[in-house]
Amino acid sequence: MTYQDPSDMDDEEYQEYLREEKTKDHLSAHNPLLEDWLARLKDAFPAWAGQHKARGPWDFTVDSLPRLEALFRDTFPSTEDARANIDEPRLAVAAWYLGEVHNRTFHAQWQFHPSFADSNPHNFRPHVTLPWDRRDDFYRTDPEHIEDDARPIYSPTDVLCRLPNTPLENGLMWRIGEQWEPGGCDDEYCRYHAN
Q1: How many CA atoms lie less than 13 Å away from 55 in the CB half-sphere?
Q2: Are 153 and 128 in contact (CB under 8 A)?
Q3: How far apart are CA 176 and CA 165, in angstroms?
Q4: What is the pTM of this model?
Q5: Could you report the per-residue pLDDT of 158-193, keeping only the tens digit for each?
């Protein structure tokens, strides 16, 4: 199916579009590439947590994120240094841990479409987003009303890599809960929202 703006589709086209998007979403959440990545990092977590036991506890709570941020800022002096170590356990396990905190707190899930690895394996890492069944909560909540699926996407690896150059007030705790809530529209003439 060639791309067409969902708002321009008739009912039959839109239902086909939704079936394709749901299939793509399911594949992004359930594929061997993602499952292998998650299993490797989950297995590496106990050693990582033991190595950083004094900075813990590493209990997958939001309260642990300031400790993770302090550890990360102490470990990597710059974004470039972090990116140079992107596949090292000290970064990769920290990214997995950060994503797991979001999953367990905000009921998000890991996703990674296999085609991302095919197109550019060095720049794409799994991300966290909300499951497909929460898609309607975000229906046309983006300010420009362009996205049919405006669920938030959170890339723990990218967030951590940028962290050394990010001001402290915009660290891991910045807007942590807000990013998982549907946005609103305050345009009284907006055709997509009941105002």
Answers
A1: 18
A2: yes
A3: 18
A4: 0.86
A5: 999 999 999 999 999 998 988 888 866 666 665 555
